[in-house]
Design a protein that fits this description.
This is UDP-glucose 6-dehydrogenase. By secondary structure, this protein is of the alpha/beta class. Helix content is about 40%, strand content about 15%. The radius of gyration is 24 Å and the shape is elongated. It binds 1,4-dihydronicotinamide adenine dinucleotide and uridine-5'-diphosphate-glucuronic acid.
Length: about 425
Protein backbone atom coordinates (compact mmCIF):
# COMPACT_ATOMS: atom_id res chain seq x y z
CA UNK A 1 0.00 0.00 0.00
CA UNK A 2 1.09 3.61 -0.47
CA UNK A 3 1.03 5.37 2.89
CA UNK A 4 1.80 8.94 3.92
CA UNK A 5 2.50 9.98 7.51
CA UNK A 6 2.18 13.55 8.72
CA UNK A 7 4.55 14.29 11.62
CA UNK A 8 7.89 12.50 11.99
CA UNK A 9 8.50 12.51 15.72
CA UNK A 10 8.66 9.47 18.02
CA UNK A 11 5.46 7.96 16.70
CA UNK A 12 5.58 9.11 13.07
CA UNK A 13 9.15 8.00 12.44
CA UNK A 14 8.61 4.63 14.11
CA UNK A 15 5.42 4.13 12.11
CA UNK A 16 7.18 5.14 8.86
CA UNK A 17 10.15 2.83 9.36
CA UNK A 18 8.03 -0.10 10.54
CA UNK A 19 5.41 0.18 7.77
CA UNK A 20 8.28 0.25 5.23
CA UNK A 21 9.65 -2.86 6.95
CA UNK A 22 6.22 -4.50 6.54
CA UNK A 23 6.51 -3.91 2.77
CA UNK A 24 4.56 -0.68 2.26
CA UNK A 25 5.74 2.37 0.35
CA UNK A 26 5.87 5.24 2.81
CA UNK A 27 6.13 9.01 2.46
CA UNK A 28 6.91 10.91 5.66
CA UNK A 29 5.77 14.55 5.73
CA UNK A 30 7.10 17.01 8.29
CA UNK A 31 7.29 20.81 8.50
CA UNK A 32 10.81 20.56 9.92
CA UNK A 33 13.27 20.45 7.02
CA UNK A 34 16.10 19.08 9.15
CA UNK A 35 13.92 16.09 10.10
CA UNK A 36 13.08 15.49 6.43
CA UNK A 37 16.75 15.74 5.40
CA UNK A 38 17.81 13.29 8.07
CA UNK A 39 15.11 10.78 7.11
CA UNK A 40 16.07 10.98 3.42
CA UNK A 41 19.69 10.39 4.41
CA UNK A 42 18.60 7.26 6.30
CA UNK A 43 19.50 8.91 9.59
CA UNK A 44 17.16 8.55 12.61
CA UNK A 45 15.95 11.93 13.96
CA UNK A 46 15.24 10.27 17.34
CA UNK A 47 17.16 7.72 19.37
CA UNK A 48 15.32 4.36 19.43
CA UNK A 49 16.93 0.91 19.38
CA UNK A 50 16.52 -0.73 15.95
CA UNK A 51 15.26 2.42 14.22
CA UNK A 52 18.58 3.41 12.63
CA UNK A 53 18.89 -0.04 10.99
CA UNK A 54 15.37 0.13 9.54
CA UNK A 55 15.91 3.64 8.19
CA UNK A 56 19.28 2.74 6.71
CA UNK A 57 17.63 -0.17 4.92
CA UNK A 58 14.50 1.55 3.59
CA UNK A 59 15.35 5.25 3.17
CA UNK A 60 15.49 6.25 -0.48
CA UNK A 61 13.63 3.12 -1.58
CA UNK A 62 10.43 2.26 0.29
CA UNK A 63 10.70 5.32 2.55
CA UNK A 64 11.06 8.93 1.44
CA UNK A 65 10.42 12.20 3.26
CA UNK A 66 9.23 15.61 2.15
CA UNK A 67 7.93 18.91 3.49
CA UNK A 68 5.22 19.01 0.79
CA UNK A 69 1.70 17.86 1.57
CA UNK A 70 1.14 17.36 -2.19
CA UNK A 71 2.78 13.95 -1.78
CA UNK A 72 -0.41 12.65 -0.09
CA UNK A 73 -2.15 12.50 -3.47
CA UNK A 74 0.06 9.59 -4.52
CA UNK A 75 -0.92 7.60 -1.43
CA UNK A 76 -4.01 5.62 -0.35
CA UNK A 77 -3.82 6.26 3.39
CA UNK A 78 -2.55 9.20 5.48
CA UNK A 79 -1.73 8.93 9.19
CA UNK A 80 -1.80 12.03 11.38
CA UNK A 81 1.00 11.59 13.96
CA UNK A 82 1.08 15.17 15.22
CA UNK A 83 1.62 16.34 18.81
CA UNK A 84 -1.36 16.91 21.12
CA UNK A 85 0.22 18.94 23.94
CA UNK A 86 -1.47 20.10 27.16
CA UNK A 87 -2.94 23.53 27.53
CA UNK A 88 -2.41 25.49 30.75
CA UNK A 89 -5.56 23.89 32.27
CA UNK A 90 -4.48 20.33 31.34
CA UNK A 91 -6.88 19.94 28.41
CA UNK A 92 -5.39 18.86 25.08
CA UNK A 93 -4.51 21.34 22.42
CA UNK A 94 -5.64 19.85 19.10
CA UNK A 95 -4.40 22.91 17.18
CA UNK A 96 -1.59 21.07 15.37
CA UNK A 97 -3.85 18.15 14.45
CA UNK A 98 -6.39 20.60 13.04
CA UNK A 99 -3.68 22.51 11.18
CA UNK A 100 -2.35 19.26 9.69
CA UNK A 101 -5.89 18.21 8.74
CA UNK A 102 -6.50 21.51 6.91
CA UNK A 103 -3.29 21.20 4.88
CA UNK A 104 -4.11 17.56 4.17
CA UNK A 105 -7.68 18.36 3.07
CA UNK A 106 -6.46 21.12 0.76
CA UNK A 107 -3.96 18.71 -0.84
CA UNK A 108 -6.67 16.04 -1.24
CA UNK A 109 -8.95 18.42 -3.15
CA UNK A 110 -7.15 17.47 -6.38
CA UNK A 111 -6.99 13.78 -5.59
CA UNK A 112 -8.87 11.25 -7.74
CA UNK A 113 -9.92 8.01 -6.07
CA UNK A 114 -10.52 7.09 -2.46
CA UNK A 115 -8.45 8.11 0.54
CA UNK A 116 -8.38 7.13 4.20
CA UNK A 117 -7.22 9.53 6.94
CA UNK A 118 -6.14 7.80 10.15
CA UNK A 119 -5.68 9.69 13.41
CA UNK A 120 -2.66 8.20 15.22
CA UNK A 121 -2.25 11.07 17.71
CA UNK A 122 -3.71 10.62 21.18
CA UNK A 123 -6.97 12.63 21.15
CA UNK A 124 -9.96 12.84 23.50
CA UNK A 125 -13.21 11.08 22.51
CA UNK A 126 -15.03 12.97 19.79
CA UNK A 127 -11.98 14.65 18.24
CA UNK A 128 -11.86 12.52 15.08
CA UNK A 129 -15.61 12.61 14.40
CA UNK A 130 -16.35 16.17 15.54
CA UNK A 131 -13.21 18.08 14.56
CA UNK A 132 -11.02 16.16 12.10
CA UNK A 133 -13.83 14.81 9.90
CA UNK A 134 -15.71 18.12 9.37
CA UNK A 135 -12.45 20.01 8.73
CA UNK A 136 -11.43 17.40 6.20
CA UNK A 137 -14.76 17.64 4.39
CA UNK A 138 -14.58 21.43 4.37
CA UNK A 139 -11.00 21.71 3.11
CA UNK A 140 -11.12 18.81 0.62
CA UNK A 141 -14.56 19.59 -0.74
CA UNK A 142 -15.38 15.87 -0.47
CA UNK A 143 -18.02 14.02 1.56
CA UNK A 144 -17.17 11.42 4.20
CA UNK A 145 -18.10 7.90 3.11
CA UNK A 146 -17.96 8.96 -0.54
CA UNK A 147 -14.35 8.21 -1.42
CA UNK A 148 -12.86 9.83 1.64
CA UNK A 149 -13.07 8.51 5.19
CA UNK A 150 -11.56 8.67 8.67
CA UNK A 151 -10.34 6.12 11.22
CA UNK A 152 -8.64 6.22 14.60
CA UNK A 153 -5.72 3.88 15.33
CA UNK A 154 -4.13 4.65 18.72
CA UNK A 155 -0.49 3.87 19.42
CA UNK A 156 0.77 2.04 22.51
CA UNK A 157 4.54 2.03 21.98
CA UNK A 158 6.92 2.91 24.81
CA UNK A 159 9.93 5.15 24.31
CA UNK A 160 13.09 3.08 24.29
CA UNK A 161 11.14 0.07 22.92
CA UNK A 162 9.30 1.82 20.08
CA UNK A 163 10.31 -0.48 17.21
CA UNK A 164 9.86 -3.77 19.07
CA UNK A 165 6.54 -2.59 20.57
CA UNK A 166 5.30 -1.64 17.10
CA UNK A 167 6.38 -4.86 15.39
CA UNK A 168 5.26 -7.07 18.28
CA UNK A 169 2.24 -5.30 19.80
CA UNK A 170 -0.03 -6.55 22.59
CA UNK A 171 -3.00 -5.43 20.51
CA UNK A 172 -4.10 -3.35 17.55
CA UNK A 173 -7.10 -1.03 17.84
CA UNK A 174 -9.02 0.01 14.71
CA UNK A 175 -11.75 2.61 15.24
CA UNK A 176 -14.16 3.65 12.48
CA UNK A 177 -17.85 4.19 11.80
CA UNK A 178 -17.94 2.26 8.49
CA UNK A 179 -16.60 -1.05 7.22
CA UNK A 180 -14.38 0.52 4.49
CA UNK A 181 -11.77 2.08 6.84
CA UNK A 182 -11.66 -1.06 8.99
CA UNK A 183 -10.89 -3.29 6.00
CA UNK A 184 -8.19 -0.86 4.81
CA UNK A 185 -6.53 -1.00 8.25
CA UNK A 186 -6.81 -4.81 8.25
CA UNK A 187 -5.01 -4.92 4.91
CA UNK A 188 -2.37 -2.40 6.01
CA UNK A 189 -1.48 -4.37 9.15
CA UNK A 190 -1.92 -7.83 7.54
CA UNK A 191 1.86 -8.49 7.26
CA UNK A 192 2.00 -7.99 11.03
CA UNK A 193 -1.15 -9.88 12.02
CA UNK A 194 -0.17 -12.80 9.76
CA UNK A 195 3.17 -13.14 11.56
CA UNK A 196 1.77 -13.79 14.98
CA UNK A 197 -1.24 -13.95 17.14
CA UNK A 198 -2.00 -10.22 17.55
CA UNK A 199 -5.45 -9.44 18.98
CA UNK A 200 -7.25 -6.87 16.82
CA UNK A 201 -9.95 -4.74 18.43
CA UNK A 202 -12.38 -3.35 15.86
CA UNK A 203 -14.52 -0.64 17.34
CA UNK A 204 -15.98 2.86 16.94
CA UNK A 205 -14.01 6.11 16.65
CA UNK A 206 -14.82 7.35 20.16
CA UNK A 207 -14.10 3.96 21.71
CA UNK A 208 -10.69 3.80 20.00
CA UNK A 209 -9.85 7.28 21.30
CA UNK A 210 -10.96 6.37 24.81
CA UNK A 211 -9.09 3.02 24.82
CA UNK A 212 -5.80 4.93 24.46
CA UNK A 213 -6.58 7.22 27.41
CA UNK A 214 -7.92 4.36 29.51
CA UNK A 215 -4.73 2.38 28.85
CA UNK A 216 -2.42 5.19 29.98
CA UNK A 217 -4.67 6.31 32.85
CA UNK A 218 -4.86 2.74 34.14
CA UNK A 219 -1.07 2.27 34.06
CA UNK A 220 -0.35 5.65 35.65
CA UNK A 221 -2.95 5.01 38.36
CA UNK A 222 -1.56 1.52 38.96
CA UNK A 223 1.87 3.03 39.67
CA UNK A 224 0.33 5.72 41.90
CA UNK A 225 -1.63 3.11 43.84
CA UNK A 226 1.59 1.15 44.38
CA UNK A 227 3.31 4.40 45.41
CA UNK A 228 0.54 5.07 47.92
CA UNK A 229 0.86 1.55 49.31
CA UNK A 230 4.64 2.02 49.30
CA UNK A 231 4.36 5.23 51.32
CA UNK A 232 2.29 3.37 53.92
CA UNK A 233 4.84 0.52 53.85
CA UNK A 234 7.63 2.98 54.57
CA UNK A 235 5.80 4.35 57.64
CA UNK A 236 5.57 0.80 59.04
CA UNK A 237 9.07 -0.38 58.09
CA UNK A 238 7.67 -2.73 55.45
CA UNK A 239 9.45 -3.40 52.14
CA UNK A 240 7.01 -2.35 49.39
CA UNK A 241 8.94 -4.39 46.80
CA UNK A 242 8.31 -7.62 48.71
CA UNK A 243 4.65 -6.67 48.93
CA UNK A 244 4.54 -5.86 45.20
CA UNK A 245 6.19 -9.16 44.25
CA UNK A 246 3.55 -11.02 46.24
CA UNK A 247 0.46 -9.15 45.06
CA UNK A 248 1.76 -9.30 41.46
CA UNK A 249 1.41 -13.09 41.62
CA UNK A 250 -2.35 -12.61 41.57
CA UNK A 251 -3.23 -12.79 37.86
CA UNK A 252 -5.92 -10.19 38.41
CA UNK A 253 -3.28 -7.70 39.54
CA UNK A 254 -0.30 -8.68 37.35
CA UNK A 255 3.36 -8.08 38.14
CA UNK A 256 4.09 -5.17 35.79
CA UNK A 257 4.05 -1.47 36.68
CA UNK A 258 4.31 -2.13 40.42
CA UNK A 259 7.75 -0.53 40.84
CA UNK A 260 7.15 2.13 43.50
CA UNK A 261 9.38 5.16 43.99
CA UNK A 262 9.67 8.71 42.77
CA UNK A 263 6.79 8.40 40.29
CA UNK A 264 5.92 8.64 36.60
CA UNK A 265 7.10 11.19 34.07
CA UNK A 266 7.58 11.36 30.32
CA UNK A 267 5.75 12.98 27.44
CA UNK A 268 2.56 10.97 27.81
CA UNK A 269 1.36 9.80 31.25
CA UNK A 270 1.26 13.32 32.78
CA UNK A 271 -0.23 14.87 29.64
CA UNK A 272 -2.77 12.14 29.00
CA UNK A 273 -4.02 11.83 32.58
CA UNK A 274 -4.38 15.64 32.72
CA UNK A 275 -6.27 15.63 29.41
CA UNK A 276 -8.65 12.93 30.58
CA UNK A 277 -9.30 14.76 33.87
CA UNK A 278 -9.97 17.98 31.92
CA UNK A 279 -12.23 16.17 29.43
CA UNK A 280 -14.17 14.65 32.34
CA UNK A 281 -14.47 18.07 34.01
CA UNK A 282 -15.70 19.59 30.75
CA UNK A 283 -18.40 16.92 30.63
CA UNK A 284 -19.41 17.65 34.23
CA UNK A 285 -17.78 14.58 35.81
CA UNK A 286 -15.23 14.98 38.62
CA UNK A 287 -12.53 12.33 37.98
CA UNK A 288 -11.49 12.16 41.63
CA UNK A 289 -9.45 8.97 41.43
CA UNK A 290 -7.37 10.22 38.49
CA UNK A 291 -6.82 13.53 40.30
CA UNK A 292 -5.61 11.56 43.34
CA UNK A 293 -3.23 9.57 41.12
CA UNK A 294 -1.71 12.88 39.99
CA UNK A 295 -1.52 14.13 43.60
CA UNK A 296 0.36 11.01 44.72
CA UNK A 297 2.70 11.41 41.76
CA UNK A 298 3.39 15.03 42.64
CA UNK A 299 4.02 14.03 46.23
CA UNK A 300 6.73 11.41 45.58
CA UNK A 301 9.60 13.83 44.75
CA UNK A 302 8.65 15.84 47.87
CA UNK A 303 8.79 12.67 50.00
CA UNK A 304 12.22 11.83 48.56
CA UNK A 305 13.49 15.29 49.57
CA UNK A 306 11.86 15.04 53.02
CA UNK A 307 13.77 11.79 53.61
CA UNK A 308 16.95 13.60 52.62
CA UNK A 309 16.10 16.44 55.04
CA UNK A 310 15.96 13.84 57.86
CA UNK A 311 19.70 13.35 57.34
CA UNK A 312 20.64 17.02 57.72
CA UNK A 313 20.41 20.42 56.12
CA UNK A 314 21.77 20.43 52.55
CA UNK A 315 22.12 24.23 52.25
CA UNK A 316 25.56 24.99 50.81
CA UNK A 317 26.32 21.28 50.46
CA UNK A 318 27.06 19.28 47.34
CA UNK A 319 24.20 16.91 46.46
CA UNK A 320 24.45 14.44 43.57
CA UNK A 321 21.35 13.68 41.49
CA UNK A 322 21.85 10.30 39.83
CA UNK A 323 19.64 9.98 36.73
CA UNK A 324 18.01 12.84 34.84
CA UNK A 325 15.97 11.04 32.14
CA UNK A 326 12.30 10.25 32.87
CA UNK A 327 13.18 6.55 32.67
CA UNK A 328 16.22 4.50 31.66
CA UNK A 329 16.97 3.87 27.98
CA UNK A 330 16.10 7.37 26.78
CA UNK A 331 17.55 10.90 26.77
CA UNK A 332 14.03 12.33 27.15
CA UNK A 333 13.69 14.55 30.23
CA UNK A 334 10.11 15.74 29.63
CA UNK A 335 8.23 15.69 32.98
CA UNK A 336 11.16 13.76 34.47
CA UNK A 337 10.88 13.43 38.23
CA UNK A 338 14.43 14.80 38.29
CA UNK A 339 12.96 18.25 37.55
CA UNK A 340 11.02 18.72 40.83
CA UNK A 341 13.87 17.01 42.70
CA UNK A 342 16.51 19.41 41.33
CA UNK A 343 14.19 22.37 41.91
CA UNK A 344 13.59 21.27 45.52
CA UNK A 345 17.34 20.97 46.12
CA UNK A 346 17.97 24.42 44.63
CA UNK A 347 15.21 25.84 46.85
CA UNK A 348 17.09 24.39 49.84
CA UNK A 349 20.29 26.15 48.73
CA UNK A 350 22.15 22.94 47.80
CA UNK A 351 25.01 22.81 45.26
CA UNK A 352 23.49 20.35 42.80
CA UNK A 353 25.54 18.09 40.55
CA UNK A 354 23.60 15.99 38.05
CA UNK A 355 24.66 12.87 36.21
CA UNK A 356 22.96 10.84 33.50
CA UNK A 357 24.55 8.59 30.87
CA UNK A 358 22.62 10.25 27.99
CA UNK A 359 20.24 12.98 29.17
CA UNK A 360 22.69 15.62 30.46
CA UNK A 361 22.47 17.91 27.43
CA UNK A 362 18.69 18.00 27.55
CA UNK A 363 18.58 18.69 31.29
CA UNK A 364 21.22 21.41 30.87
CA UNK A 365 18.69 23.33 28.75
CA UNK A 366 16.22 23.17 31.67
CA UNK A 367 18.73 23.82 34.49
CA UNK A 368 21.79 25.58 33.03
CA UNK A 369 22.81 26.75 36.51
CA UNK A 370 23.71 23.37 38.04
CA UNK A 371 26.89 21.35 37.60
CA UNK A 372 26.89 18.23 35.41
CA UNK A 373 29.33 15.38 35.95
CA UNK A 374 30.44 12.97 33.24
CA UNK A 375 30.25 9.89 35.46
CA UNK A 376 28.38 8.79 38.57
CA UNK A 377 31.76 8.50 40.32
CA UNK A 378 32.56 12.15 39.52
CA UNK A 379 29.13 13.26 40.75
CA UNK A 380 29.55 11.37 44.03
CA UNK A 381 33.09 12.62 44.70
CA UNK A 382 32.90 15.06 47.63
CA UNK A 383 29.08 14.95 47.77
CA UNK A 384 27.32 15.23 51.13
CA UNK A 385 24.37 13.23 49.82
CA UNK A 386 23.02 11.58 46.69
CA UNK A 387 19.49 11.03 45.43
CA UNK A 388 18.62 8.45 42.77
CA UNK A 389 15.90 9.42 40.31
CA UNK A 390 16.33 7.10 37.27
CA UNK A 391 16.92 3.35 37.45
CA UNK A 392 19.84 3.10 35.03
CA UNK A 393 21.48 -0.34 35.36
CA UNK A 394 24.91 1.18 35.94
CA UNK A 395 23.76 2.55 39.32
CA UNK A 396 23.33 -1.03 40.57
CA UNK A 397 27.06 -1.57 40.06
CA UNK A 398 28.16 1.47 42.11
CA UNK A 399 30.22 0.38 45.09
CA UNK A 400 33.50 1.97 46.26
CA UNK A 401 32.47 5.14 44.41
CA UNK A 402 30.44 5.93 47.55
CA UNK A 403 33.66 5.98 49.60
CA UNK A 404 34.64 9.24 47.88
CA UNK A 405 31.54 11.00 49.25
CA UNK A 406 32.03 13.63 51.96
CA UNK A 407 29.02 12.14 53.78
CA UNK A 408 27.82 8.80 52.40
CA UNK A 409 24.03 9.33 52.44
CA UNK A 410 21.94 7.94 49.57
CA UNK A 411 18.18 8.36 49.18
CA UNK A 412 17.10 5.97 46.43
CA UNK A 413 13.91 6.76 44.54
CA UNK A 414 14.13 3.71 42.25
CA UNK A 415 15.53 0.84 44.34
CA UNK A 416 18.57 0.46 42.15
CA UNK A 417 21.53 1.12 44.47
CA UNK A 418 22.84 -1.84 46.50
CA UNK A 419 23.01 -1.33 50.26
CA UNK A 420 26.59 -1.63 51.54
CA UNK A 421 28.53 -1.20 54.77
CA UNK A 422 29.43 2.39 55.50
CA UNK A 423 26.58 3.78 53.39
CA UNK A 424 23.59 5.43 55.01
CA UNK A 425 20.96 4.11 52.64
CA UNK A 426 17.33 5.22 52.58
CA UNK A 427 14.74 3.77 50.21
CA UNK A 428 11.68 5.80 49.31
CA UNK A 429 9.14 3.00 49.85
CA UNK A 430 11.17 0.29 51.56
N1 LIG B 1 6.01 9.65 22.22
C1 LIG B 1 5.37 8.52 22.48
O1 LIG B 1 5.95 7.60 23.05
C2 LIG B 1 3.93 8.34 22.10
C3 LIG B 1 3.16 9.41 21.62
N2 LIG B 1 1.85 9.22 21.31
C4 LIG B 1 1.04 10.33 20.77
O2 LIG B 1 1.42 10.53 19.40
C5 LIG B 1 1.30 11.91 19.05
C6 LIG B 1 2.62 12.40 18.47
O3 LIG B 1 3.59 12.36 19.50
P1 LIG B 1 5.16 12.32 19.22
O4 LIG B 1 5.47 11.45 18.07
O5 LIG B 1 5.77 12.02 20.55
O6 LIG B 1 5.42 13.86 18.79
P2 LIG B 1 6.80 14.58 18.49
O7 LIG B 1 6.75 15.89 19.15
O8 LIG B 1 7.93 13.63 18.78
O9 LIG B 1 6.78 14.79 16.88
C7 LIG B 1 5.87 15.53 16.17
C8 LIG B 1 6.41 15.89 14.78
O10 LIG B 1 5.38 16.60 14.07
C9 LIG B 1 5.98 17.64 13.30
N3 LIG B 1 4.95 18.64 12.97
C10 LIG B 1 4.41 19.60 13.77
N4 LIG B 1 3.45 20.27 13.12
C11 LIG B 1 3.37 19.74 11.87
C12 LIG B 1 2.53 19.98 10.73
N5 LIG B 1 1.58 20.92 10.75
N6 LIG B 1 2.73 19.23 9.62
C13 LIG B 1 3.68 18.27 9.59
N7 LIG B 1 4.49 17.99 10.64
C14 LIG B 1 4.34 18.71 11.76
C15 LIG B 1 7.10 18.14 14.18
O11 LIG B 1 8.08 18.83 13.41
C16 LIG B 1 7.63 16.81 14.79
O12 LIG B 1 8.66 16.24 13.99
C17 LIG B 1 0.84 12.63 20.33
O13 LIG B 1 -0.56 12.75 20.30
C18 LIG B 1 1.27 11.68 21.44
O14 LIG B 1 0.45 11.80 22.58
C19 LIG B 1 1.24 8.00 21.41
C20 LIG B 1 1.95 6.90 21.85
C21 LIG B 1 3.36 6.99 22.23
O1 LIG C 1 1.28 7.09 25.30
C1 LIG C 1 2.49 7.00 25.38
O2 LIG C 1 3.29 7.84 24.95
C2 LIG C 1 3.13 5.81 26.01
O3 LIG C 1 3.25 6.07 27.44
C3 LIG C 1 3.90 5.03 28.18
O4 LIG C 1 5.21 4.80 27.70
P1 LIG C 1 6.48 5.69 28.17
O5 LIG C 1 6.01 7.03 28.63
O6 LIG C 1 7.44 5.61 27.04
O7 LIG C 1 7.17 4.98 29.41
P2 LIG C 1 6.80 3.88 30.50
O8 LIG C 1 7.77 2.78 30.38
O9 LIG C 1 5.38 3.54 30.51
O10 LIG C 1 7.16 4.69 31.85
C4 LIG C 1 6.45 5.88 32.20
C5 LIG C 1 6.91 6.37 33.57
O11 LIG C 1 6.44 5.50 34.59
C6 LIG C 1 7.50 5.17 35.49
N1 LIG C 1 7.25 3.82 36.03
C7 LIG C 1 6.99 2.78 35.19
C8 LIG C 1 6.73 1.53 35.72
C9 LIG C 1 6.71 1.33 37.10
O12 LIG C 1 6.46 0.21 37.62
N2 LIG C 1 6.98 2.38 37.92
C10 LIG C 1 7.23 3.63 37.41
O13 LIG C 1 7.45 4.59 38.20
C11 LIG C 1 8.75 5.26 34.62
O14 LIG C 1 9.90 5.45 35.41
C12 LIG C 1 8.43 6.45 33.75
O15 LIG C 1 8.76 7.66 34.42
C13 LIG C 1 3.10 3.73 27.98
O16 LIG C 1 3.76 2.67 28.67
C14 LIG C 1 2.96 3.39 26.49
O17 LIG C 1 2.13 2.22 26.34
C15 LIG C 1 2.30 4.57 25.77
O18 LIG C 1 2.19 4.33 24.37
Amino acid sequence: MNVSIIGSGYVGTTLAACLAELGHTVTAIDVDESVVDRLNAGDAPIHEPGLADLLAEHAGTRLTATTSYDAVRDTDVTFLALPTPSREDGSIDTGLVEQGTESLGAALREKQGSHLVVVKSTVVPGTTADRVAPLLEETSGKRLGEGIDVAMNPEFLREGHAVSDFLDPDKLVFGAEREGPISTLRELYRPLTERGDVPVVETGLREAEMIKYANNAFLATKISLMNELGNICKEYGVDAYEVADAIGLDDRIGSQFLASGVGWGGSCFPKDVAALVAAADAAGYDAGLLKAAVDVNDQQPRRLLALLDDHGDVAGERVAVLGLAFKPGTDDVRESRAIPVIQGLLDRGADVVGYDPVATDRMRQRFPEIEYADSAAAALRGAHAAVVVTDWDEFAALDEEFEAMARPVVVDGRRIVERRDGLTYEGLTW
